[in-house]
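G., before I forget:
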Amino acid sequence: MVRVAIIGASGYTGQELIRLLLRHPHVDITALTSRKFDGMSVSEVFPVFSGEMDLRFVPPSTGTVCDTSDVVFSALPHKVAMDMVPEILERGKKVVDLSADFRFNAPEVYEEWYCGHTCSKLLKEAVYGLPELYRDQARNARLVANPGCYPTSIILGLAPLLKNKTIDPQSIVADSKSGVSGAGRTVAMEHLFCEVDQGFKAYKIGQHRHTPEIEQELSLLAGEEVVISFTPHLIPVNRGILSTIYSKAIKDISQSELIAAYTEFYEEERFVRIYPPGLFPNISYVKGTNFCDIGIQFDPRTKRIIVISAIDNLVKGASGQAVQNLNILCGFPEGSGIESLPIFP
Amino acid sequence: MVRVAIIGASGYTGQELIRLLLRHPHVDITALTSRKFDGMSVSEVFPVFSGEMDLRFVPPSTGTVCDTSDVVFSALPHKVAMDMVPEILERGKKVVDLSADFRFNAPEVYEEWYCGHTCSKLLKEAVYGLPELYRDQARNARLVANPGCYPTSIILGLAPLLKNKTIDPQSIVADSKSGVSGAGRTVAMEHLFCEVDQGFKAYKIGQHRHTPEIEQELSLLAGEEVVISFTPHLIPVNRGILSTIYSKAIKDISQSELIAAYTEFYEEERFVRIYPPGLFPNISYVKGTNFCDIGIQFDPRTKRIIVISAIDNLVKGASGQAVQNLNILCGFPEGSGIESLPIFP
Amino acid sequence: MVRVAIIGASGYTGQELIRLLLRHPHVDITALTSRKFDGMSVSEVFPVFSGEMDLRFVPPSTGTVCDTSDVVFSALPHKVAMDMVPEILERGKKVVDLSADFRFNAPEVYEEWYCGHTCSKLLKEAVYGLPELYRDQARNARLVANPGCYPTSIILGLAPLLKNKTIDPQSIVADSKSGVSGAGRTVAMEHLFCEVDQGFKAYKIGQHRHTPEIEQELSLLAGEEVVISFTPHLIPVNRGILSTIYSKAIKDISQSELIAAYTEFYEEERFVRIYPPGLFPNISYVKGTNFCDIGIQFDPRTKRIIVISAIDNLVKGASGQAVQNLNILCGFPEGSGIESLPIFP
Amino acid sequence: MVRVAIIGASGYTGQELIRLLLRHPHVDITALTSRKFDGMSVSEVFPVFSGEMDLRFVPPSTGTVCDTSDVVFSALPHKVAMDMVPEILERGKKVVDLSADFRFNAPEVYEEWYCGHTCSKLLKEAVYGLPELYRDQARNARLVANPGCYPTSIILGLAPLLKNKTIDPQSIVADSKSGVSGAGRTVAMEHLFCEVDQGFKAYKIGQHRHTPEIEQELSLLAGEEVVISFTPHLIPVNRGILSTIYSKAIKDISQSELIAAYTEFYEEERFVRIYPPGLFPNISYVKGTNFCDIGIQFDPRTKRIIVISAIDNLVKGASGQAVQNLNILCGFPEGSGIESLPIFP
């Protein structure tokens, strides 16, 4: 059994980590930190865990966390994460960080879109925790930077096309739609039920912070610098991201060749499901699971390829992928604790 | 008072026509047809109208309809509409048709995407009922072809850009999202509550029948043949369409110039609202109304212009626009009966 | 035209008053107060009113309000209302108050459930603004206390049974369910979209402040002191209250006699709709309207009568009823400005 | 490993059985029957199972089913179930039946509320599959009649009060609210998304078929014949039942004594969670799980006890409880395959 601590455990990603890890066959949760809920029991904060867990939240402290655990999940916001993570690493613990702080190769990109970086030397060491692309590097890592939710859906959706040089990398338009839990549990008027329900809107058009993270990985796949249009939208559902991704084909390709290329690319992947021709993902088909479902359509009228990818933003887009990274770090079977099937309806 | 009949009145667009016309200051509803609900009273079929109306549905018959009315709304499905409309016109009535049957200038386009056309000579005469573009032609028309819901949102969203030659017309990607009432009241498993709620999906990718209708009007605006990518999606809400429309700018233009151009283009329009910089539409801001709300963003990184347009698919996207066309046909103030404000939340 | 001011206009009931009054044929809105949004324009705070209104919010001040208006709606919270209303009355204005401050006949009841009362002498004068019961008194009132949302649905649901002495008044159980807008626009974690959607719960069981208001009016109808069980619940919808009300019949009565008694009791009422046998209300059949829909079932197995009543909590349960009271106060036709039909779906 | 067949596997309870059994450590699913989807693969019918299962649906046939399995789940509708179950038992298989056909002790009650019974001799043998009350009898049963969803929530909610003679059994009012999946996957206009969303209604008032099932078990607990008022309602969510249950206390009892009595009654129960004073269940706290959550409030003003119980109608209210019964029948740990925690949000 590996002993695991979660720092910043009082948001939705923290809660989702608890849900998954409580049923993980090789994990003991030993500490949960929260400044806000310090001293309260888990089931007071999250009644869903009534009768399942005795732990109380403690204030964030490197000492407490490191004394009790082997691996630490950080679900802190960006900027706060980089204040705590270096010390935890120094004390010999492994870290899976769910913030943006260690996702970038170039500190100047982080600084342009986020804020100043106080331990940029760790950027070189940190592994971008998308197992489908970086599994081998993650195996021996000390620090895994868990990808953002939108980036996970878009990068997995485009990787085969870019790797195979099927499309013009400069023609990419990614139109993404997310459930509301992507905004976290922070209390804001715009996320009140009445403001969201029966609504649908775009937000941060051309300006969302996940843009450079997506572009970094697409550029590496394409072998050239890629700039994309990325527009996030808010769907009135709790969970799920669906990305509709447009790009121009640069060679003649048939629908079935496309699907065959995806199937081959993800052949060994437990959590990527490629849909047969004419079938397309729905966020309700991945709810509660670590799957990324992908459907592909070639449009001969416009020579555009349209890729649809769907994930649960709290699982494959956050906590589930973090557990997948834990499994890789610790040598557990990669699906441990994240094998459950979609809750539908 | 003008006497109005509605044929095919038992679906959601029929119901919405009844809702609007019952409060229209210059209209009497004189006949409602429905094969399915023949003989039943309106309030049995639509309990929302309890105590408001005595009419009973009658079977569709040109005679009954023409004997009692001056203007006829047809809310029949495509193909069925073109079987009844010609005779109604011959009997001297004016018709606002909500199907696709009279929207196309070229019969061969209709026949490619729909089915054979049995009265294609009427296509020349029919006016495409988008008042913002064809108001003058509609004033003296006998037959108005009420636009589709997706086309209304996309054409109004792009008209200023194409008219002003601001964009490359071949670069358009229209990613649209619709509430479920767009699918009508037809009983199908895929529209059961449990199949839709908490879900989100794309459908008919690259193949939706509104594509040629949109392309016809964009081509006329651009002065060249335009081919677009159009992807509809299903949002788990009752009403509303939001279209996110991408295109490449072909000249240098600032955000404020763009908004000024839209404001000028729609200056006289009662039902188009242009948003100030940084604000964007939400389908919940137009619910129950005839408004088309438009927000515009220029992205200097990609030179793409992103237009967001929002309508209520049952009002501006169908029945409200049909009433607007009635008002134009009859010389009533254009907002008669469709002035109500959004229901929010 | 009567000039109307709204104080405390930045919540959902304030917004709903604006929506209704902007289309009221005999009203000009002359002032809107909000401490929070002081100086902002209405359409910045409520984008739904874009292009419809130029007013800016001003801070609450008796002077400003009284100088510009003939009638004042107060949408302030309880306790705050009673600080401003007396002065407005002294300056000769009429007031429709939407808080609980003037709904009680006995100050001690208010003080037990709310807080100390600072102008209890006004309680005698204030008219409880349920037009179906107190229309005559309201005609010449200076101060109308607009009823609570739950009380409106329950009192209208039970009035015929109590007035006709059909039931044991001590046997009443009122199980009510409300949409989330009943909680107002106040920002609280428990009303975040993700906390509410896909959920359903009871709250304030046996302790909700509307209990004594309901009991006051039921006692007057019954001619004896009535104590009830009242349990509110939260439905994941924006609008609507449905109350399921159980009571024991004390005499033999048939289903059709019951419905006839209701129909007779509400014969002259524009906004109460009695359903035929076997049909029952749905909150979606009253959405956006001032209707109270009522269905009745007698259960011979238990000798209980089950009444179902449905209203839109923001219209008949708040702002629509307030406009109805304005119409009565000013001698306008009672339906002015509140005649619109349900938005369905 | 026990080999399990599911007959009538194409509805929501069938699908939920598949979801749970695919991850059950001691079960192999060997046959799935469906007349409607005969020959289709599971993942065509339920895309959520893509990549998880190869089985194809076969037509319902006792032979096929019995040849391949040790235990049979029947998810057939009532009446259809009793045509197949007897033969399966004769062939030596054990059966967990999810219909109403074997839930009643008295055939005449079944016949009054449902239809004629063709194998009423099995009623004596069948065990009512509510493990919290009938675990011992189920251990050696051949035929377990899995309880209805509403009955599960109401019987578990009231058992301690009736067993301890705390309440007047004739004073019970059960006001229940269910998500839409309770209606199954049958295609009907009233369950279309647009008819349900933003709505809330009561249905089958005083006439729902679960009434006699509830009364049978409450009568056994009370030791006298109990007649109740039971009103089901439809919540616009996918899953969950919350019952608000009113009854008159017949002795003085404090809130804390009440909660202590419940805690003691359910002390050994893995799947019943009693809430501390002041906290109450929410259907979103049990989503996807086999829990029944219970909160209790004593109202000194009315001497009524209000019990709130919440379950997931597809899990503890159907398929999860069926798996719990399988575990009991087969001697597996009772939580096998149904241990997962709530998906929230």
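The radius of gyration of chain B is 20 Å. Chain B has a mean pLDDT of 97.

More on Monday.
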